[in-house]
From TrEMBL:
Classification via PROSITE patterns: ABC_TRANSPORTER_1, ABC_TRANSPORTER_2
Gene Ontology terms, MF aspect: ATP binding; ATP hydrolysis activity
The keyword Nucleotide-binding appears for this protein: yes
Keywords noted in UniProt: ATP-binding, Nucleotide-binding, Transport
Family to which this protein belongs: Belongs to the ABC transporter superfamily.
Keyword flag Cytoplasm: no
Pfam families: ABC_tran (PF00005)
Protein name: Nitrate ABC transporter ATP-binding protein
Residues in ABC transporter domain copies: 24-263
């Protein structure tokens, strides 16, 4: 059948939907530590695909391999078996702009917040070649705009010891995003904060993601945090870990703390909790 016969005259054709590109892919990736004959399996063969612009949270028992997956994705660790593809290339084969934030902000105490946040622009290509010329103009404006997004615009010239833990973590997120990374890796970034500050920073992180849309991989033990922030949640088994559940989180955005008390959100939390409890129980039985 010709195209003119397939579509009524005057009716516009509909272009096929374009699937989002894959930013991160683990293909049968496994990790073991130790010498031959005395190896310890840290991660079983794991498959994981994260689309560009997606926000994925990894949850599971302590020691299950969540941080191992993050280190594989960052290129800080090579898989014992399998492959890790980031940005369409095997990790390490091509420089990919990555931002990272951890539980400890690790700000340099002798630098102001402005200079701490600007630090990646001094190190990361292509920004580092222009650092001397732009650090007091364009790069400074970039830092101040990002600090304003998180409510720290009046603290650019303060030193880390003059800020609270929550403020330091806001600055830490700014530093992770200042060089416009394609991929943002977060390892328990709010774990050391009190509950109220954590909830406030969930909103900050959500706003930054909605505005910039990097691909995000979040490691967390907080199921409520995962449900608030992520568009997908992957649950891992006990060590040696593997992904035992991968579910979309369809709550509308922007999400609020009040929403976390709704029945559907509470049900999601309980389902995730039950999966992790079952995984721990299975591991205990196998180890008995």
């Amino acid at each position: 059948m010709s195209r003119s016969q397939a579509l009524p005259q005057g009716q516009p054709s509909i272009a096929p939907a374009v699937a989002p590109s894959i930013a991160v892919e683990l293909s049968q990736a496994a990790v073991s530590f130790g010498k031959p004959g005395k190896t310890v399996a840290a991660l079983q063969e794991t498959n994981l695909r994260i689309a560009a612009g997606e926000f994925v949270a990894l949850v599971g028992p302590s020691g299950c391999g969540k941080s191992t997956i993050l280190r594989l994705t960052a290129g800080l660790l090579n898989p014992t078996r399998g492959a890790v593809i980031v940005g369409g290339r095997e990790v390490g084969a091509k420089a990919l702009r990555i931002g990272m934030a951890f539980q400890n902000p690790t700000m340099l105490p002798w630098l102001t917040i402005e200079r701490n946040v600007m630090l990646p622009l001094k190190i990361v290509r292509p920004f580092r070649s222009d650092y001397r010329a732009k650090r007091k103009t364009e790069f400074r404006d970039r830092v101040h705009a990002l600090l304003a997004d998180v409510g720290l615009d009046k603290f650019a010239n303060h030193y880390p010891w003059q800020l609270s833990g929550g403020m330091l973590q806001r600055a830490n997120l700014c530093r992770a995003l200042i060089h416009e990374p394609s991929l943002l890796l977060l390892d328990e970034p709010f774990g050391a904060l009190d509950q109220f500050t954590r909830e406030e920073l969930w909103g900050t992180m959500q706003s930054l993601w909605l505005k910039r849309k990097p691909t995000v991989l979040l490691i967390t033990h907080d199921l409520k945090e995962a449900g608030f922030l992520a568009s997908r949640i992957c649950v891992m088994s006990a060590r040696p870990g593997r992904i035992i559940d991968d579910s979309a989180v369809d709550f509308p955005r922007p999400r609020t703390v009040d929403m976390t008390f709704d029945a559907d959100f509470v049900a999601l939390n309980q389902r995730l909790r039950d999966l992790i409890i079952d995984a721990r129980s299975d591991a205990a039985i196998q180890g008995a």
